[in-house]
């Protein structure tokens, strides 16, 4: 399920409203009532019309949830980019300040040496005029003429004085650059805070939509079952089966589109997916911890240790085993690169942050689609661009 694509610079989505989503929340009066369902049952044509209407509402609910989920992941990506840039600006400012301090110290050291040599010259017979010429750097040729036998010492002194001046100018320039870098850091800090707020708002919108979707979906499946004289579970199972049958073609199309986009961008390949902000997670499992979770689960699927290597290579190619791996080109997310990302909610609602939830979904997918991790890995290798 890997989709190649370049991690493009995240554009100005931070302030964009959710009106950009392809589908908005449905109004209460959009849904069929039970009276309408019962009336439709009396007529075969009307019943089919109502079935089509309910099916369309389910499609809209799923599309809205998917769109909002991807918006949240995009905004999380913006937050990570903003914080990365902020930290880079801070590192640059710190480096420039260190270099400026070193340059100032060199200037001070050179000045002290000039003073020490000037004092020695004075003690050795140099008059006040000579010393003044040394310290001020005026009329260097006249100074050399006056010093005569001390020309080598004078040349060294003039060199030190010039070095001190260069070091002082360098320190001043570096400090100015450091100040500019700090100003940029402050600007980027504000951008990062704005992006974080947008990401939190986006996640809150997704959470609210998921609650609404579950409530309405349950009713819609019951109404569908009533119209067709089946059960809600059967209708949901049938719908999921149809979706799985269409999934492979959709994944291939998305992979091809991502590969074409990468080629248009110069043929570069990210070699993996970027990371997205994980809401309210504190921390997530490391890749090594995620691998151990997966190894512990293999036995429950009837798979032995011989499948470990295939699974490691498969998900290394997909996500690097990172819980928050995010492909901005396709919207695929997580260790198994679920596409769309919110499919993993079928296991648990903590899919954005929980490695085990993602892994269980991924192993279920591998079992149902390929039988074993090694079969999935071999299929992944045989496809260009790679996907499973």
Automatic annotation (TrEMBL):
Species name: Agreia bicolorata
Keyword flag DNA repair: no
Protein name: N-terminal domain of peptidoglycan hydrolase CwlO-containing protein
InterPro entries associated with the record: Lysozyme-like_dom_sf
Highest taxon above the source species: Bacteria
Keywords tagged on the record: Coiled coil, Signal
Signal peptide, first to last residue: 1-21
Keyword Signal in record: yes
UniProt-annotated stretches for the region Disordered: 264-283
UniProt feature coiled coil, ranges: 37-113
